[in-house]
Amino acid sequence: MKTPATPSKLLAFATLLIAACALATGAEAQNGLKKADAWPNRPVRILVGFPGGSTPDMAARTLAEPLAKALGQPVIIENKVGASGNIAADQVAKANDDHTLGVVINGNLTSAKQLYPRLPYDPAKDFTPLSLLATAPLMLVAPASLPGGAEFFSAARQAGGHWNYGSVGNGSVAHLGMELIKSRVPGLQPVHVPYAGNPQVITAMIGGQIQMALIPPGVAMPHIRSGKLQAIGVTGGRSSLAPEIAPLADAGVKNVNLEVWTALIGPANLSRAAQARLAQEVPRIIHDADTRQKLFNQGWQAVGTSPDGLKSRLKDETAILGNIIQARGIKLE
After folding, report:
1. Count of domains for the chain
2. Which region is the signal sequence (predicted)?
3. What is the pLDDT of residue 171?
4. What pTM was computed for the model?
């Protein structure tokens, strides 16, 4: 015959049962928290403010496939063209689904605020910088039918305002870079004509609507090698992306040391889980030899910085482009 449990034994058993339940509940809550914090838990969108075939689009698509494999979710590129990439940037700034990112160019994060008094987003407050993906110099390109080298600038001076130059949009580095060149070459007065992207700039140049433009080597070189266009010179020093093209300084235009770049950003409200995952995966992908070669073939020098690396670049370049804007008195609506 079993001895009846004493009240003290019953109390001890109840205490152990409550503790076990608490531990189980805590473990379930912890597991639930981990699942809730997991990122991503659905497809990731990357918005690009320029058309397919543009240099930002090519960089974004090069990143997308390996990033999808790393994250275990589809990475979808969406081209939201217009306003020099500012439409796409604004949509990224206003995204609240924690799965929308953007690939942008210099101007969206550096010069846009200084150029557009009614810009719908604040580059300094509305984004989470994630990584500087890649950089490239700019190449001054002209139709092959025009004179080359220093003679090109003599012909351009004589043409005055009858010649036009194209860019990927108001406030882009290609726009501001041409204004810098105009300040370096007395008498140079081509009129700015903005386009949706570099493919449209190329088409307009071949068609005779514009006579010059600053274009990344990856877009320009196929047309130069085919004989449809010519390179007058490249910004900065001689570049490994186009080693056969002399610097602009050789044609008499010095101190034009600008680059274009493309960066990955998220909205300011991007979760810490997303930031941490992307800070881990994106630089690893960009530093991969296969990715670096693909970017190089497109005319990009792979970089793949940390978020702090992109923040540093933004600070430096905002000052540089701000000086050009102030010196040339550029304001846009």
Report:
1. 2
2. 1-29
3. 81
4. 0.81
Same domain, 156 and 54: no
* Cβ-based neighbours of 86, under 8 Å, separated by 6 or more: 49, 108, 112, 116, 119, 120, 121
Q: Are 50 and 85 in contact (CB under 8 A)?
A: yes
What is the C-alpha to C-alpha distance for residues 9 and 11, in angstroms, rounded to an integer? 5
User: How far apart, in Å, are the Cα atoms of 244 and each of 94, 141, 210, 217, 266?
Assistant: 44, 14, 24, 11, 37
Q: At what angle do helices 55-71 and 289-297 cross, to 10 degrees?
A: 160
Helix, coil or strand: residue 327: helix
The answer to whether 100 and 279 are in contact (CB under 8 A) is: no
Which residues span the domain enclosing 197?
A: 139-251
With H, G, I as helix, E, B as strand and everything else as coil, classify residue 157.
helix
Note the pLDDT tens digit of each residue in 112-164: 989 988 899 999 999 999 999 999 999 999 999 999 988 999 999 999 999 99
Quick one: 304 and 232 in the same domain? no
DSSP H helices in 72-115: 86-94, 106-109, 112-115
> Both ends of the chain: CA-CA distance in Å?
95
* Calpha distance 235→246 (Å, rounded): 9
- What 3-state DSSP class applies to 153? helix
Q: Is the peptide bond before 40 cis (omega within 30 degrees of 0)?
A: yes
Q: What is the pLDDT of residue 158?
A: 96
Q: What is the mean pLDDT of residues 18-22?
A: 49
The torsion angles phi and psi of 87, rounded to 5 degrees, stand at -65, -50
Rounded to whole angstroms, how far apart are CA atoms 31 and 72? 20
